[in-house]
Amino acid sequence: MKFNIIFIFIFLTSCTTNVTKLENRSPYNSKGFAYIYNDQDYETKIINSKLDNSKEQVSVYNLKINSLIKIINPNTKESLTINNYKRIQYPDFYKILITEKVAEKLSLDPKLPLVELIEIKKNKSFVAEKAEIFNEEKKISSNAPVTSVQISNISKNNPSKKNIENEFYIVIGTFFSFETAEFLIKRIKKKIPIYDIKKLKIVKKSSKEIKLLSGPYNSINLMKNDYIYLKNFGFEELDISTDE
Predict the structure, then answer these.
(1) Which of 31, 193, 203, 221 matches a 20 to 30 Å C-alpha distance to 23?
(2) Residues 6 or more apart from 10 whose CB is under 8 A from it?
(3) Model pTM score
């Protein structure tokens, strides 16, 4: 069912979402999980091309071949700057396909291979900064209330809460009002009846920043299921990140 045009306009004034364009876009900057290459996944057609695990090779499907990428292990701060070797199709949940050599170089945990990706423009000096989400222009599409999802570890931001290792929350949207977040909960409940609504909660971060969260999650598999539900719901771009 499509939104009433007037109704959409009202919510556009209070909701913020990321808009990614191929033209005139900012350098790619994202956090998420790396997919560590193995030949069996190629043979079973989970991925559509080969890498050499004895070499430092990576593939980011959203970037052009030979794009320069800085890969950071957010837990150890180890990093590697490398060219995008190929554009290979791999499961959409992951942000990058890497060889075992790269995983070893970055000291990644194979069970939870979190990485941050920063595209480095070769003709410009580039400084990586964390932008304030609600300062960017956001839009609601007719198919989904927001177009981006972030997964964030917020336990460190709450001093009254015990820090739990590997605990994550899906930040479904950032809004200016409770009404928009409540509207989105009702829409998810209606359109994704299999989704566990008990996971959803509204958190007021500031007077102008209301977040709709889902979680907590402490494993990739649990997080991946909800990610797929949200993707099939119509979210155009899903991002995964951790607060440091």
Answers:
(1) 31
(2) none
(3) 0.62
User: Does a cis peptide bond (omega within 30 degrees of 0) precede residue 216?
Assistant: yes
Each residue of 94-149: pLDDT tens digit? Answer: 899 999 999 999 999 998 898 999 999 865 443 333 333 333 334 433 445 555 55
Q: Where are the domains of the chain?
A: 5-22+133-238, 29-120
The string of pLDDT tens digits covering residues 185-243 is 999 899 899 999 898 889 887 877 888 888 888 888 778 888 788 777 876 666 664 55
Distance CA 166, CA 220 (A): 10
Distances (CA, A) of 154 to 52, 175, 187, 221, 227: 37, 17, 24, 19, 18
